[in-house]
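User: quick one, fold this
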Amino acid sequence: MKIYTKNGDQGQTTLVDGSPIAKSDARLKTYGTVDELNAHVGLLTSMLDNEANLKPIVSDLRELQNWLFQLGSQLACANAEMAKKLPTIEESQITRIETWIDQWDQELPSLKNFILPGGHLAASQAHVCRTVARRAERACVSLNDLSELSLPAVAFLNRVSDYFFILSRLINHRMEVASIEWKP
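Assistant:
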């Protein structure tokens, strides 16, 4: 099987359900942004893989990557009946993310100022994940305005963004790198 098909050379592609769609369509932009987020999470896991005090987080990130892939497959399917057969995001996954956030927040010092992205390289990458998650969230809101989504995609991505904010702080904390405070 060849990697390239040339089917998309004219700006069209096909959704999971087989329906044709323009590459500029809101649906494609949305699941493309979720895919971009997943790639950034993969980079972050590579950065954390050899850090002993952060290694347990890698398995959580891999789980999150699977969830992002599930979300992407749902977003790539416009046929509601076919979408029911695909793995989907559920409230329990959002609750799991909230549990991670709450556990880490207890370990961290109180936040007294806004912080800027930076510090440890992996913390900076977590901030990149946070901002891409926010963009994916905005894209989901726009897609939902056009075609009502029947899954908690917006809430999920909102929580994912919060997760990466706390994770960036946790990485700096555990790596003993100071967070960069915003000083207006």
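User: anything notable?
Assistant: The CA atoms of residues 10 and 63 lie 35 Å apart.
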